[in-house]
Amino acid sequence: MKVKIATRAGFCFGVKRAVDIARECLKGRAKPVFTLGPIIHNRQVTDLLTQEGITVVDDLDHLSGPGTLIIRSHGVAPDVVQQAREKGLSIVDATCPFVRKVQNTVQNLVRENIPVVVVGDPEHPEVRGIVGWSDNQAQVIRDPEQARGMKFLPRVGIVAQTTQRLKNLNAVVEILQKSGSRVQVFNTICLATAERQKETLELAGQVDAMLVLGGKNSANTSKLVQICGGSGIPVYWIETAEELDPVWIKGLSAVGITAGASTPGWIIEEVHCRMNEFNENGEKDIMEEMVEQQSEVEEQTEPVVETETTPEETAPEEEMQQEMDESMEVRTLKHGEIVKGIVVQVNQDEVLVDVGAKTEGVIPLRELTCYTVNDPQSVVKVGDEIDVFVLKSEDNEGKLILSKERADAEKSWTSLEEKRESGEPVTGMVREVVKGGLLVDVGVRAFLPASLVEMGYVEDLSKYLNLDIETRVIELNRGKRKVILSRKAVLEEEYTRNREKLLANLEEEQVVKGVVRRLTNFGAFVDIGGVDGLMHISEMAWYRINHPSDVVQVGDELDVMVLRVDRENEKVSLGLKQVLANPWDEVEGKYPVGSVVRAKVVRLAPFGAFVQLEPGVEGLIHISHLADHHVATPDEVVQEGEEIDVKVLSVEPDDKRIRLSIREVNREANKEANREARRPQPRENTTKQPESPTSDGGSVTIGEMFGNIFDDKKE
Hints:
Layout: E1 2-5, H1 13-26, E2 33-36, H2 43-52, E3 54-57, E4 68-71, H3 78-86, E5 90-93, H4 97-111, E6 116-119, H5 125-132, E7 139-141, H6 144-148, E8 155-160, H7 166-178, E9 182-185, H8 191-204, E10 209-213, H9 219-229, E11 235-238, E12 254-259, H10 265-280, H11 283-293, H12 295-300, H13 317-328, E13 338-346, E14 350-354, E15 361-364, E16 385-392, E17 400-403, H14 404-422, E18 426-434, E19 437-441, E20 445-449, E21 468-477, E22 482-486, H15 487-505, E23 511-519, E24 523-527, E25 532-536, E26 557-566, E27 571-575, H16 587-590, E28 596-605, E29 608-614, E30 617-622, E31 643-652, E32 657-661, H17 663-678, H18 702-714
Parallel strand pairs: 1-12, 2-3, 2-4, 4-5, 6-7, 6-8, 8-9, 10-11, 10-12, 15-17, 25-27, 30-32
Antiparallel strand pairs: 13-14, 13-16, 14-15, 16-17, 18-19, 18-21, 19-20, 21-22, 23-24, 23-26, 24-25, 26-27, 28-29, 28-31, 29-30, 31-32
């Protein structure tokens, strides 16, 4: 017995991607991982993932973060994602790129106010998710009968569930067109599904029985069963090798095996190995023994799957083959065509793209972009929808060779010409720093001279690498493939717009944020959002400063007050001290009359000396209060920069005047010294005791004994 396995049996691209994403989430996980519903329609795979640590949940009601929620390959409505985020869950989207394409199409139709019809099973999770992307406005039509009962719509956009059959989609479209609706059709049926169905039909015509492997809840597997049933041979739908019964294949010369898109390769291999075991162990003897034991069962044995077929499904093989050919919609591509495709694989030296042809197209690395890249993943990712240019419909190896770079260029030249005429800016990514400027990717290589990068000189251009910048096309020559850009033109226009808007809205005494751009001897120019205002040196601080750099530096960000606005001449005067605390508001409490404080002499005048008590607060020592004696000039007593003690005589904050005195400090110091001098001092005991007559016959008189005491009393 020969066993033939369909080459496209098992995991499709989207399912394999979803399972790979799920397993990637398990690596190094510290938080629980969930899937909202089975990630694919295969019980064996979901059971295995559960054993590995992924929990399947049917709703979000009992979930909350932290944790990771994987969106399965069928996708979900956007409100489900929002609900999960509100619960604190991290989202990992494993939606099949082909399903994502349907969702995006529906969303765009709704934005254009076009009613949407989805052809498919309304209970299927993929369809429920698609409807959610229409703000739940889309109608779901299962078949032509339901289409006949629809309310008339003047205009309608139609999409299909990715596993639908083209014949059903076309029938629905035809009915709506006959009703008078203006129909816009988007064939969103997955090409891989159509190819699988076509190959299954061909295989069923070459064998005596078909084994269809896949989950009983899998829509695409169910359709494979229906297709095989139309060939008039026994069809057995099983999920695992354990369900395989040797009785089914007794006496058959060839058996075909196909599998739904959710069936893993290891299940297919197990079934294949089991079939080989039957052959190796003497299939005939085994079957004869089983027939003797189960003769009654054999008489009643029918295919495991009995499908109720409509006349449409029991069509002759020729009709079924024609339907499969139509559903494939294989394009015949020619050199120079630009078509859309979906990236299905990214390798180190090439990218594979599904463009609806017999095989995937190949984009060589050199044709990926107009700039040299080492990592294709930095340009495209699996699931991206891109435009490609057909370089060769078939090379010497039978490959379809494509170019993304050529498609981008063709589209970009037209766009650049239009934007140059209209003056609309273009956005591109800076790819390289070269001599004299930057190379910018705007779909084609464009040059941005260094002098046109900013409004001023730029010393280091490398800071723009890999940044998206907005520019204007100032020179364009398609024949020479020459594009010159200017970012300076865009910045100047933006500066002018901001300046006009700002001047119109500025008001005096308004506090705004600004950045110091330039210093001069008389002040600083501050950018307040498109307008450079002058902050005079006298408005920078409450005290005298010698240069603006004493207070601010270029690049400082600060709050300033608008003092005056001259809209006619576009001039703005700014102040810094007005937003700072006025030190004169607190001088009465800090320097009460009669207190002695430390001060610094800041300047001399013929009539006295000015001293600084603190920045912004100065007082005057009149020349008459510099000393107790006559002073001709202040420099006889004090010098600039000298620190001295002064006494506060009066404080007049409204007039910003404080009278001070050194003389009063000196007088008080002298009085204190005199008091100290007059204060009695402790005396030594000088009283002498009578001495005995000395050896030389001398003696002490009474006067000598009490003379010192009388002297002290005199003093």
